[in-house]
User: What shape does this take?
Amino acid sequence: MIRLSVAWDDIGGLVDAHERFLTGAPVEADVRAPVLESWKRCRSVGLEPHRLLLPRGPDPALDDRFLRAADPVLRELAASLTDVGMSIALCDAHGRMARRLGGDLRLRDRLDQVGWAPGYDTAEAVAGTNGVGTALAERSPVYIAGREHFADCLQCFACAGAPVRDPLSGRIEAALDLTCMRDQGDPVMQRLVHDAARHIESRLLEQATQRERALLAAYRRAGAQAGEWPGQPELPGGEGRLSRLDLAVLRERAEELIASPHRTLDEVTLPDGRVAALLRRPVPGLSGEMGVAVEARVLGGPRAAILDVTPPPPVAGPTPEPDRAPVVVRAVVPPLPAEPPGPPQPSEPPGNPADRAGAGDDGRLVLVGEPCVGRLAVLARRRLELLHEAGGRIGTTLDVTRTAEELTEVAVERFADLVTVDLPDAVLRGEEPGPLGAGTRLRRVAVAAGGEAPRPHGVGEQVVYEAAAPQARSLEGTQAVLEPEPGSRTGRRPLPPASAPGVHSLITVPLSARGGILGVVSFYRCAQPAPFEDDDLSLAQELAGRAAICVDNARRYTREHHTALALQRSLLPKGRPEQSAVEAAYRYLPARAGVGGDWFDVIPLSGARVALVVGDVVGHGLHAAATMGRLRTAVHNFCSLDLPPEDLLTHLDDLVARLDRCEGWAVGGAEGDSGIVGATCLYAVYDPVSRRCCLTRAGHLPPAVVGPDGTVEFLDLPSGPPLGLGGMPFEMVELELAEGSQLVLYTDGLVEDRVHDIDIVLQRLREVLAVPGRAPEDTCEAVLDALLPVRPSDDVALLVARTRALGPEQVAQWDLPCDPAVVARTRAAVIRQLAVWGLDDLAFTTELVVSELVTNAIRHATGPVQLRLLRDRALICEVADGSSTAPRLRRARTEDEGGRGLFLVARLTERWGTRYTADGKVIWTEQRLPGH
Assistant: This one.
């Protein structure tokens, strides 16, 4: 029983649904889905309900074989409906009515008035929604009642239709319909017409098996009359016998031979190395049917006996159940006459296989059947092989475009002559696609064409399908659409490439996965003469279904990859900081497998110095990127304290260890965070005044130093343990660099892979770097071009810094005694130096700052006091002393006599701070230069 939403004629609110649909108003809540899809198809071909009349078409084409199977069923059905007032119609596969049976006088008169009679065309494209046309379009049983008909002239009827298929090929041969007046309609009519169609299909299958048995009997009679069934001796040990595996191989090749009308002979190599010849012979039956028999014999050895299998006797048993798949080709081995075993026969002499196979007294029957049945068996096996291959070839990567290309490569030539895949741009970006249908802009992602197939839109072009296009109907209806003859009878205007010369069959399938539509795939045939059939539709749906899951997986991966990449890029430096110590260039390349934890940094320090950092967190994904961001932030914080390099790595190592121990977390029932499984770091500080560089590393690869003359040296730094292990101190190395030297810092992704030894790659890096006078940007490009593939397997961070130096004209330094009287002389010297530098505008502020800092050093510190002015991007003032006690900024109370000097220094300068040295500390300030 088919459940209807609401009876159309019973509730006035639904009467105007058809009119509302024609005006474009949404009616999905009021109309059943199959009916609504039919209405959309009718509207797309321009049908008008009030002007629609059933046209008279060409004579229907139903062969005698089908009529012999259908006539008894129709007579029985008509007899059972005599008192019901219901008409039976039989139409061909195009909807042209061939017969009409039954019905009372009133019903027949009304049907005649609208043209529901033999010779008229009831196809949906010309007659609108009705039992026959819609059943053929939907390729399944339907029930249409009253106003569900698209044409006004048919709304007084209720009808149910069902397609009738060939049980062997699955091709629709005809359509059966039951029609009555609307007030007598009942959804049970759909069950009745479906059962009648199944009964006709079972009778067609019985005819096929009867023909096959007749062909086998004819073959046996011919063999008996010619005396072609002599006994074959059984060889000692059974070495001449055919195993079941041998027989399976013979049967498979025999099916292909039966399906090939232009071939009569084939040779088969058996699994054990023997060669068998297959001979194809026509077999006429007593009733005039023509079949084919395939005989086999083994060549190159003793004349083998076929496997001793007793065939089942022919049984004219009950009609096969229509729910079960029919056996399309029978494997037959006739019983051998009982003869005493004889001596082994001599081996077959070499010669033409056709001559050897032509001897009728040595052949044994392998298969018998009709050529069309053999073709169906071959096609079925090839479809299974294609599905098996598709499972291994589609979805090998997590790339949306490549997955679409794999689908087209698998399907072209073996299934279709032209395959296209169209996806919205949102899917390519990893986003959830919106509603798709007519007018939606799609992107042609993949195209594959074989032979002389027409070339449609190129890859990357935008495609927009009109409402009449099968692709638009497929997207809107979320169902596959089969167009055996696109644009031929339906009146639809086909779209390229369906309108290209030679295209005669089309299947469009929506790429549906996890409840969403991702795009559409179109299969075209032009070079292959056979149009698509229902079995091809099922295969196309299976191929598209598998590809859709892979495309959705790739889309989801793309989304997660873009999210992780955006997170990582947001955590990496976005520009070059203002500093004059080095000229820096950098590159970061994400890994092919996903984002990683590599990072780099150029951090300005006090005293015109700069810190260069490169690090690597083990692993890929969001966790590695987030960990990298935490470590990079920690390095910035430690740099603000002006810690020595070895102390900074010690603090960073302790931080990583604490994160591993204390910050595993879980949300709900999820597994806890696995922590930081490993991280390395290389930290260097360069001073442009002394041109000295201090370096230390924690499990990281050593840097390279390129001299101004092009000499390359990989620094032999002490290798501390990776971060987080603890227990071992880090050692620092200090060296002097000539001005114009280049420091090259990198992560392991640049020099380590699974193919080449690291020493070979480092030597190649040395050769690339050995170019004097090259700019850091050019160095980065040269290194990546020489060492990396297009898509590296691991992420890569590369930092190249060319050193600069502050000349004596930019530095002024005074050693001061611990005498308060020296403060006045110091202020005067500072004013003179600022005048030399042309910084008179900063004289008052600098005089006040120097006076305060020098006075504090003389009063509170110990050891020698030194004053240094640096003219860089800012005016830097440094006061060094031998004390390790740092001043602390505080707010002085109203009654306090002191404590305001450092507060004034902080307000008058842009930055200030303290850094510790081996001999004490340095208090420093920075003032912005005029015009900067």
The chain has a mean pLDDT of 80. Residues 218 and 285 are 6 Å apart (CA to CA). The radius of gyration is 44 Å.
